[in-house]
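User: For documentation purposes, I need each entry recorded in a consistent format: the amino acid sequence on its own, followed directly by the corresponding structure tokens. There are two entries in this batch. Please keep commentary to a minimum and don't merge the entries.

Assistant: Recorded as requested. Entry 1:
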Amino acid sequence: MLKVLKFSASWCGPCKQLAPIFDQVKSEVSGVSFQDVDVDADSSLAIKYNVRGVPTIVIEKDGQEVKRLVGMQQKPSLTSTINSFK
């Protein structure tokens, strides 16, 4: 099972830019579990994943982290990165 977690914060400009892109990818890529994590509201999860900056996207396959993307992402590269692990 592939899981994609997006760590962001309400005060983060790049996070606001990434949100609609992430939502589009979520609606177009099937068979993947997507999760939005607000680092301020769920700091324990951010600590567990060792998130140092936002936005951060963590891709897990079968419970193991296989890719970490930090910073703003464009839709084509994000989609192809996720699909490469399916």
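Entry 2:
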Amino acid sequence: MRYAKYELVAGGTCLQETFRFEGDDSHTMVTMYHVDGDDLMLTHYCIANNQPRMRAENISADLKEIAFNFVDATNLPDPNAGHMYKAVFQFNDENEFSSAWTFRKDGKDTFTEQESYKRVK
């Protein structure tokens, strides 16, 4: 089972997402979402051993969809090394959303991981 936990950190200036597979801490990943000037940014701390940064390029007028695109990455030996390149979030309501993360290697999108989430209270 996969799940994500969300927490406001750094005095409420950053949203921390912790994604893990139940019973398997080796696949835990963290994504930090924050504002940088007029931009909404994310940094994804990936099990691929790099940290892509992405900027929200498309935010729908109703705020139900946000699409992030790659800006740069730390610990990425060269642009052809595998890394997350795009992330799209769709918010259905206050209790449910989905995400689609696209992985790129050798200049080509190689797969997309899609997840759906429901709030657990």
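Summary note for entry 2:
The mean pLDDT is 94.
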